UniProtKB/TrEMBL annotation:
Chain segments annotated as coiled-coil in the UniProt record: none
DUF3097 domain residues: 20-83, 113-269
Source taxon at top rank: Bacteria
Species annotation: Streptomyces fulvorobeus
InterPro entries listed in its UniProt record: DUF3097_C (IPR021447), DUF3097_N (IPR053883)
The protein, known as: DUF3097 domain-containing protein
Length: 272
C-alpha cells in the first residue's frame, strides 16, 4: 500500500486558476512580462498561436502572444482568449459618435467649407470628424490665423449653395478674436469658437495623462510654455503629435469644442 505524501509546495508557488477574458476591442490590459499597457485593437491567428495587438495612449502598437496568465486586467492576472465571434465586429459609431456607415463612399466635395485657424485645429477635426466630413462632402481648410478674416470671407464669396463655417480659438468677450469675428455679418457665414487659448487645451487633460493644462505667464509663447511646464522637450510639433495620439474619439475632447464643430457641420450641410 502506497503511503500518503503531503503536498509541501508553498501556497505562493502553487498554480492558481485565473479567469479567461475575451479580448474584445478597446479592452485595456497590461502585458505581464513587459508592462506594456494598451487597448485591444485586434486578435489574429498565426502559425505560432493566437496573438493580440495592443495600442497604448501614445498610439504605439505591439503584438503579444495570448499565453495563459499573460496579462493583467485591473491589477489581476488573467488569460486572454479570442472573442466568441470569429468575425471582427465593425465599429457601430465613428470617432465623433455618429452611426458608422460601412462601405460608404466619400461624397463629392461641396462648395461650402469649414475654415479653422491652424494646422493643429484641422488635424484634430479630421481625427474625430473625418468620417462624417467625407460622407457629407465637407472640406476643412486652415488659415494660419484670422487677422484677415473679413477679407478671407469676401474672397470666398459665400452664398446659399456655398456656406462658410469658421472655427476660432479664444473666442471670448473682449478678446482680439471676438472683435475680428464681429466684423463678419454675412448670413451665409457662421463664425463660432471655443474659449481656449489654443486647440491643445480642448483635449481633456486626463486623456493626455496630465492633471491639468498649465497656466503660462502672459507674454510667453503659450505652446512653448506648456512644454516647459510639463518638462517636455521644447518642440511644439512633437508635443502636438504626442497630444493628438491620445485622441481616439469625441470622449477625449472638451464639450466647448464638440458643440461648436457639430454646429459648423450642420450649418454648412443644411439644405439650401
Amino acid at each position: 500500500m502506497r503511503s500518503y505524501q503531503p503536498d509541501l509546495t508553498p501556497p505562493w508557488k502553487k498554480s492558481v486558476p485565473v479567469p479567461e477574458v475575451p479580448a474584445e476591442p478597446d479592452l485595456v490590459v497590461e502585458d505581464a512580462t513587459t508592462g506594456f499597457c494598451g487597448a485591444v485593437i485586434r486578435c489574429e491567428k498565426t502559425a505560432q498561436g493566437p496573438t493580440v495587438t495592443l495600442e497604448d495612449r501614445f498610439g504605439r502598437h505591439r503584438v503579444f502572444p495570448m499565453e495563459p496568465r499573460g496579462f493583467l486586467l485591473e491589477g489581476r492576472v488573467v488569460t486572454l482568449v479570442r472573442p466568441a465571434s470569429a468575425t471582427p465586429a465593425r465599429p457601430a459609431r465613428t470617432a465623433s459618435g455618429s452611426l458608422a456607415v460601412p462601405g460608404a463612399r466619400a461624397r463629392v466635395a461641396r462648395a461650402g467649407r469649414i475654415y479653422v485657424e491652424g494646422r493643429h485645429d484641422a488635424e484634430l477635426v479630421e481625427r474625430v470628424w473625418g468620417d462624417d466630413l467625407r460622407i457629407e462632402g465637407v472640406v476643412v481648410e486652415y488659415l494660419e490665423g484670422i487677422d484677415d478674416l473679413p477679407a478671407i470671407v469676401r474672397d470666398f464669396s459665400p452664398g446659399p449653395d456655398a456656406r462658410l463655417g469658421v472655427l476660432v480659438d479664444h473666442l471670448v468677450p473682449g478678446s482680439k478674436e471676438s472683435r475680428i469675428a464681429a466684423q463678419v455679418s454675412d448670413g451665409d457665414v457662421l463664425v463660432v469658437g471655443h474659449p481656449y487659448i489654443d486647440v491643445w487645451e480642448a483635449v481633456k487633460p486626463s486623456s493626455v495623462g496630465i492633471p491639468s493644462w498649465p497656466r503660462v505667464p502672459h507674454g510667453q509663447d503659450w505652446k512653448t510654455g506648456v512644454c516647459r511646464a510639463l518638462s517636455w522637450p521644447e518642440n511644439t510639433g512633437a508635443a502636438w503629435q504626442r497630444i493628438l495620439s491620445t485622441v481616439r474619439s469625441y470622449r477625449d475632447l472638451e464639450p466647448e469644442l464638440l458643440g461648436r464643430v457639430e454646429e459648423l457641420i450642420d450649418f454648412v450641410t443644411a439644405p439650401e
